[in-house]
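[Meeting: bench + compute handoff]

Bench side (C.D.) handed over the final construct sequence. Compute side (W.E.) agreed to return the predicted structure before the next meeting so the bench team could plan truncations. Sequence as handed over:
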Amino acid sequence: MVNQQVILVVDDEPVILDSLSDILCFHGFQVLKASNGMEALEILRDQIPDLILADIMMPEMNGYQLYNRIRQNPDWVWIPLIFLTAKGAAEDIRFGKELGADDYLMKPIDAEDLIAAILGKLRRYTQLDQERSSPTEQIGHGMQAPSNVSDFPVDLTPREMEVLRHMVMGLNNTEIAEALFIETSTVKTHVSNILLKLGVSNRVKAVRFAIEHHL
């Protein structure tokens, strides 16, 4: 199925830029590419994407400067942004979260984690946009009620449901562990059980399954 959503990828390393673009195109996204923040702003003036993936360390305008420029424009402020950063750059992550960044992905980036994070962010922002558009609309008048354990078509434990919901939000195993106050190894076990019960081969397919069933 062709995905009409548009992702703007911003990275000054051509190999990474092309690799991320190939992954996104393979999963049906339309891709816009920029090698630095200044190029990204030029693209944004012509076309507004559904989500932005941006490296932090770039020439001319880095990821944080780009983020600030985006948040200053009322036409762009709603666009979710995921930062790409070197593994272990804890100071970068703390600074970005203080700015209000949505999420981080550590390089080298795993394709499954990338797609899961993007799907989670797009779903969350779509829900927020719908709520803003229809603030007084009730569930009985066309809005899809959120699922609970009994509504879901697969028999997952309450903890597995929690883990799956966090996967849909785009969190990786470490972030899920922190959110649920459990060990990362425990999260990995839950994820394996979820994939087995859903009959899917990876977390991207699990996230899609959950989204299709309104989790």
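W.E. noted at the follow-up: Residues 36 and 59 are 6 Å apart (CA to CA). C.D. will use this when planning the next construct.
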